[in-house]
Design a protein that fits this description.
alpha+beta; two-stranded antiparallel ribbon; about 100 residues; about 15% helix; disordered N terminus; SH3 type barrels
């Protein structure tokens, strides 16, 4: 029981110290878009930053495969491919991805 409590506390401390949310800290692989408000969509961009062109908008529930992630400024950007259209590749903010 002590080990379980310690593991939970350690995970929370690491997430807080690293500045990465638990959803964004997950391993590579399949993720879904979540947390996008209302009628908005998560923007898939040509590069890791808001200065890059938007390729497509992804609504909540869209499944993507995370290839890699990198920090750019205060945002963690992940290189992703679409689950159902693997030829479509781009970058999205890790804050809106949840591990499946």
């Amino acid at each position: 029981m002590r080990k379980a409590i310690f593991a939970i506390i350690a995970a929370a401390v690491l997430a807080t110290v690293s500045g990465i949310s638990p959803a964004a800290a997950g391993p590579l692989g399949r993720h879904e878009v979540y947390g996008v408000e209302g009628d908005d969509m998560l923007k898939m961009r040509a590069g890791p930053g808001v200065g890059y062109v938007v390729i497509v908008g992804l609504p909540n529930g869209t499944v993507v495969r995370v290839i890699s992630c990198e920090q750019s400024g205060s945002t963690r950007w992940c290189s992703v491919t679409m689950e159902k259209a693997r030829g479509l590749k781009g970058y999205v903010s890790a804050s809106y991805l949840r591990k499946l």
